[in-house]
Amino acid sequence: MSKIDINGDIVESLTGTTIEKKKSRIPARLDFLQSATGLILALFIIFHLIFESSILFGKDSMYAITKMFEGEFIVKDGSPIFISTLAMVIFAIFIFHAFLAMRKFPSSYREYLRYRTHAKLMNHADTNLWFIQITTGFMLFFLGSIHLYIMMTQPQNIGPFASSDRIYSDLMWPMYLMLLVSVVLHAGVGVYRLIMKWGWFDGENPRQNRIRTRKIIKIVVVFYLLIGLFSLASYIKIGYEHRVDYGKRYSVNMGDK
What we know:
- The chain is mainly α.
- The protein has one domain (about 25-255): Up-down Bundle (3 helical TM bundles of succinate and fumarate reductases), CATH 1.20.1300.10.
- It has 8 helices and 3 strands; from the N terminus they run E-E-E-H-H-H-H-H-H-H-H.
- The protein has helices at about 25-50, 60-70, 80-100, 110-120, 125-155, 160-165, 175-200, 205-240, and strands at about 5, 10, 20.
- A 3-stranded antiparallel sheet has the order 1-2-3, with no helix packed on it.
- It is elongated and about 60 Å long.
């Protein structure tokens, strides 16, 4: 009989000949790439929502942030091409991350039912979080793609009035509401699972640190949901007030009215 090392590294045949058996490192590398791209996207979302919330400080603040991303410090009056390029880079990372993550999604309804049965029997918090992540990830594949496509093809339509017109007059606020909830939950759960997976803050008491990390992530998720909701409400309000001048662009000369 053949003898196999418990690590699967060496196989010994009947004749005593040993054969080196190499482990496939592809799954580990794909896991690392999934984690890395997920972390990049989570960091992008953290800063993106903060920049978007500049509308809470007035139209001038949001306009200044827009001009900064249009590269006004490089090109006079800025250029939407910078925003379009950034959107294309993020979209590429987004699609690559989605492709890697789909490897772990249930591939059939039968697999999904097995997972749900397993989750109910275990009633484990982290297992339930995984269900939230795959659900929000599925939503993001469509909602995030739509948003990034708009940013790539219409980068000039970003600003206090342009963004508000799109959200209110173009009736896109329901999509942005769903996008906000799904992206914040997905990013929050994703960062938590990354911390657990790679043991970044295990310390001397991993169990206690896990509980503490979960509480911190919950607070961060609630914080970003709140600033996102308040920002969305501000855009809707501005869009409503600007509906009669739909299409008119904002300038600092108008003042923050």
